[in-house]
User: What shape does this take?
Amino acid sequence: MSEWSQLERFLQTDPEDVGCGEAMEIMHVYADLVQAGADPEARYPGVAAHLRACGPCAEDLEGLLAALNDPHD
Amino acid sequence: MGSVEPAAHGDTTATLDPESAEWVRALAGGGAGRERALLRLHEMLLRVARGEVSRRAPRLSISGPELDDLAHQAAADAMMALTGKLEQFRGESRFTTWAYKFVIFEVSGKIGRHYWRKPDVRLDTEDWERLPDRMGFDPAHQAEWHDLIVALHRAVDDDLTPHQRRVFIAIVLNGIPLDALVAEMDSNRNAIYKTLFDARRKLAASLAARGYLNHYARRS
Ligand SMILES: [Zn+2]
Assistant: This one.
């Protein structure tokens, strides 16, 4: 990929992106949908857009899913 | 930015699954039943906190007792936060998923604060020489991106507010993690993300107006 497109991709913002506040608010619901094999992206497209762009929120969701998949439960 | 559709935040309380209902009943009740539930809850949150810090440990400069200490603090603070917000649990997820979320957020916040214990971190240094490397630009292609970096630098100076500029420099140039910047600026993740989001949008518009970002589109 060219440097131009790398920078362009970084600067590109998705108008659907709901931001961290709403993504964090709904993250437990989103995680349960993921784990149930449902389609959270269809139900919460703005949250899905945020998770594609926000490293910290994506990391939190990953951690939450890891906790849910812990065999201890 | 967009928003979650109102239906997602409707005030209809979903029917609780039996396990979630039992948690809520025990924690909202009193006496020995509540004490037992709190103990069980703490045990569960500590297990999740330990799991999460060890999952993240390879990417952190924290280890051993410090890591376990962080897990204990995260579990304790999650307990506090959660028990104060019990009436906000509306059964949109399982109770345990909702509870785990508090732990994960506490772990993130504590890792953000811990970042500043490193001796060599810099918030406001402006080293534009580092940007190509941060962006993963290939030095061999410098002829291609040199002008772009100069234009970006100019757009950052000319078009961003002082706050947007500070956040952009800290995160993009200095590689400060977002949660660490949140801790340092005594802000919250939503506000810092929004500031960076607005900065990115402004810079994209500015570079496009100066004929830069169409470059790639024309070539592809
Ligand atoms: Zn976020």
Remarks:
- The two ends of chain A are 43 Å apart (CA to CA).
- DSSP finds five helices and no strands in chain A.
- Residues A 20, 23, 50, 54, 56-57; B 189, 193 surround zinc ion (CB under 6 Å).
